[in-house]
Automatic annotation (TrEMBL):
Name the UniProt record assigns to this protein: MUT7 Exonuclease
Coiled coil: none
GO biological process terms on file: nucleobase-containing compound metabolic process
InterPro entries: 3'-5'_exonuclease_dom (IPR002562), Exonuclease_MUT-7-like (IPR052408), Mut-7_DEDDy_dom (IPR037432), Mut7-C_RNAse_dom (IPR002782), RNaseH-like_sf (IPR012337), RNaseH_sf (IPR036397)
Occurrences of domain 3'-5' exonuclease (ranges): 335-536
Top-level taxonomy: Eukaryota, Metazoa, Chordata, Craniata, Vertebrata
Organism of provenance: Bombycilla garrulus (Bohemian waxwing)
TM region positions: none
Keywords linked to the UniProt accession: Exonuclease, Hydrolase, Nuclease
Comp. bias regions, Polar residues: 564-574
Keyword set includes Nuclease: yes
UniProt cross-references to SMART domains, sorted A to Z: 35EXOc
Basic residues: bias regions: 552-562
Gene Ontology molecular function terms on file: 3'-5' exonuclease activity; nucleic acid binding
Region (Disordered): 549-586
Amino acid sequence: VSRQLKEEIRRGFARLEDPLAGLLAMLESSSDWKGKGHSLGYCITTELQLWIKAHPAVPQSGTKLKKLQARVLGMLSQCPANLLDPLISIYQLHTADRNYLLEHVSHLYLQGNYKEAAILSIKLKLQPDQDVEKMCTPLLLQDRANLVEDYVAEYPELQRKLLQTLDTWCDPSFNIRDITRLYHGLSRYKPEKFNCRVLSKLVFRLLERFNVDPALCPNVINQRHLRTLNYLFYKRFVEKTMTEENWADHIQSTVGENRWLQEHLVQSLLRHCDARRAARWAQHCQVPPEMLPWAVAEELQKLHMQDRIEEVTEADNYDTSKKDYYQLPIPRENIHFLQTWEETLQCWEKVLQPGQVVGVDMEWKPSFGMVGKPRVALLQLALKDEVFLLDLPQLLEQAEAEGEKEKLPRFIQMLYSDAAITKLGYGMSGDLSSLAATCSALKDTEKQMQGVVDLLAVDKQVDGLSPEQSHKERGVRQPEKGLSLLVQHVLGKPLDKTEQLSNWEKRPLREEQILYAASDAYCLLEIYERLCKDPKSFGLGSDLAESLVGKQSKKPRAKKQLNKQEAPSPSGQECQGPRKEPSCPPAPISPREFSVVCDNMLQGLGRYLRCLGVDVRLLDNEDDHRKAAEIARQEGRVILTSGLPYQTLSSQVGEGRCFSVNCSKKAKEQALQVLKHFNVQVSLSDIFSRCQ
């Protein structure tokens, strides 16, 4: 706003006998102020707000102010968001009669203006006197979850009431139509956004944001545990990539003494095992005998009579042979599990040596989609002749008891910031994110990193087998991916990943866990050494060592952080078949010539591409991933997906018609990745050329 206009506005106020009434008269007789952005009405209103501060005698009180407040209240539901605060301030609506304000908001609600009623309630802080379920239900039906979060943000009691309501709706016996039929004919109603799955995600988001005890939402927690249970059965009996001990650890911690989950455990056991093995596991997990089917209960009685649990011969052809996997080249006695600071200080002296090359990895208990970020349970540091496994929970507890909480952060910061020490990792950004969640003093470690080599960045450049070819060559076993695939490319054999999803917080660690953790860190040293010795044979530049050290990775996907029940995408990177440089880049095309269908985990990317003029179709949250292939074939679109669905979808469309996007990146970075790959050239005229 020009200085001349501001001065003219202020002179106008000074000439008015009653500036507050004058502003209202102006707004009521004009429609300009109803538009978005900085209208003339907005400029005059905000100038009056500033002018009143300089002239404290102007604000009124008593009957005259009440009449002005009644008039302005009638306007608030129509005015743009940027005028709400100035008008509330000018007309002192916080001092108005609370019952009168509540009555006005109730009138808005009854007219079906649910959004306006909620926003005004937030601005006037009326929530404690309102029914949270009544206010929030229509907003959720209209897919206004963000407004619901804002509505309860400052009121812990309302947060708990809302969470209990949402949890009730997620009860398997609850008919969600009992809610929706009350709002028949609701404008902007989005039924696809109002179901148990979407509500469950909202509950977890609210639990985490407001730091509420998850025990408040037993239905949602039970459903998530059930999905975890089904996932564990899939890993053990279908994919066969989890050891029996590892599986048993997770089953026990997931099911516990929950009768409902125990029932589902028994049903799943009978689907995958015979009655004898089901009885054995029922006894192992302490399932009450009265919950068991007759055949299982009979087998359980036999086990009791024998007074021992017989080891049942594996009937699922689980591959226990280790000879096909990468083997640690150092003796077992050179792997040290450190639980005291005395031992750890000796480790530091060896690690913090100039010129040292250190393989770094971390392990944490899989969260399986539960609340909170995973906390690192084990830090692995591999040197040429030995590997150190640091028991972080134990060391942090000891340091806190001794009043020296900064001990561990100081060591880790020294390690990562020392350019004279080469640190090797794979997906370092994900590891450091979990490290920061474990110890808040380490949240800026990534910004201070020097002398690091993230082999995930190298992985994208290495010539070798694709995951699909690896699968074909190795027969029935699952295709290798991520670090295991890189180890296979460079060292000849993949990593044995059967302990990856272990309970890393349980002590003592099993021997298999110790060997797995040591291998995960040590293999980085061997890969780096092999690539540096002969980079050309892997399709890399001859100055590999010099070019890699000091370069940070571009925030790769956090590995092992399975907050969703899905396998991570191979290496968290693009997976367009064999890794060969194309003979020539695709011809440049405009966004208008580029048609895509975005899988439902990439809706943010889809909206961003649409802003750039790309022809985008988005799958809804409830759609099966396979619908993307159907749309792609019918309409000639390219599929944009991520993770496990890529493997399925890429086989259903032509070569180059399916692209795997890095889910750990923001929508803008994902869009740049897609545009670069398909050589889409965006011009100024393309931006916002399509209806949003």
